[in-house]
Amino acid sequence: MKKRIALLGATGSIGKSSVDIILRDKENFEVVLLAARSSREKLDELSKLFPSAVCVLTEEKDGTQKLLSAISNVKADITINGISGAAGFQPSLAAIESGSHLALANKETIVMAGKLAVRLAKEKNVNIIPVDSEHSAIFHLLRYFAAHNTGAVSEIILTASGGPFRNLSLQEMEKVTAQDALSHPTWKMGQKITIDSASMANKGLEVIEANVFFNTPVDKIKTVIHPQSIVHSMIRLCNGAVYAQLSKPDMRNPIHDAIYYPETTPLTLEPLDFDSLTLEFSKPDTEKFPMLKLAYEAAKLGCLYPCAYNATNETAVTAFLERKIGFLDIPRITESVLQADWNCSKIDKDTVLNADKNARQRAFSYL
Ligand code: NAD
Ligand code: MG
Fold first, then answer.
1. What is residue 151's DSSP assignment?
2. 12 in ligand 1 pocket by Cβ < 6 Å?
3. For a pocket test of ligand 1, which of 83, 90, 213, 229 has the largest count of ligand atoms closer than 8 A to its C-beta?
4. What is the DSSP-derived secondary structure letter of residue 37?
5. Counting ligands in written order, which one lies closest to the CA of residue 189?
């Protein structure tokens, strides 16, 4: 029986890597749903490759509602969520509710309401398998090395490329443009995540993601700068041993691992060449990258703080891309919005969507 796949965010960077992996094994995979916000031409191209897939374009009238219904109707075996930003949250929940496993690139889902998603997945007896390269690395390291004794893990160490501004001073960072921020040194990704990498909000989101996903307190999640993006992340065990996962920076690796999970199957990509490999590590500078510090604080406070962090960042990033604010206004605005009270008595879909909306309104008022 072929595994039936729903591919959300099919026209983006994760979408493209997913298509490459799926086409390598047409015997075992069939795409039943293709969704994107844009564009019709790109989606038509993809539907030639996967003629039996239902196609949904959310920029069209009632697109979001159509997408949520399509996810419920197709009941895929596995859903790859490569939608960017908070727009990925409801599709993730709809996929889990339909009984589909979730290969999750959309980290925003976990940041906004990770506990809710994880609880729902348990109820529905489906897996959420991380596709974010760091979390994929940790997920598989935990199952290979700590499967029988999760208490043995003393620390999760997330690696970060440090982005294009790693060596700039704060004064220099004040003046950087969207174009400067969009040239990432190691990864080729969508615009939003590329700006997040430059501000280290991406690593901030990933700290929150790891906190929820691996049920690990934030003070046991460390971040280390590693400019080559070869070591995808590490776990330190209580005996001091550190286990790392290494490969070339290529999202096809974690996508492959997620859609074949729990099997480990062959994948032929260009192998790592140890003859010409230099690996460097250093400490991140949270004075220069306050988005990282703010994420640790939001994760500690819990409740709707991570959701507010995410919504504010997304609003500020859009404004930065539209050249309405400077680069360092992103952390300034985020810090201001996080001053509000984001505590809550319960987290359900509506409280999360409300907090997301509120935080965006507050962020707008600072623009
Ligand atoms: P991208 O901008 O290249 O692609 C985003 C895709 O989502 C596009 O197909 C777009 O049309 C679609 N989309 C946007 N809004 C939508 C909506 N409302 N409804 C339906 N579709 C919508 O982004 P990307 O780089 O592929 O990143 C996607 C997600 O994966 C993000 O959450 C990102 O953080 C995560 N991620 C990406 C990478 C990477 O290497 N690109 C690595 C790790 C995690
Ligand atoms: Mg990542």
1. G
2. yes
3. 83
4. S
5. 1
105 CB within 6 A, ligand 1: yes
Cα of 239 from ligand 2 centre, angstroms: 27
pLDDT at residue 191, as a whole number: 95
- C-beta atoms surrounding 223 within 10 Å: 25
pTM for the model stands at 0.97
Span 172-221, pLDDT tens digits: 999 999 999 998 788 889 999 999 999 999 999 999 999 999 999 999 99
Instruction: Name the residue with tokens 């504010």.
Output: 312
Which structural domains are found in the chain, ordered by start?
3-130 (3.40.50.720), 135-248+281-292 (no CATH), 302-367 (1.10.1740.10)
Closest of 161, 168, 162, 142 to residue 232, by C-alpha: 161
pLDDT digits (tens, 9 = 90+) for 293-344: 999 999 999 999 999 999 999 999 999 999 999 999 999 999 999 999 999 9
Q: Using an 8 Å Cβ cutoff, are 130 and 213 in contact? A: yes
Q: Which residue from 81, 139, 88 is spatially nearest to 112, judged by alpha carbons?
A: 88
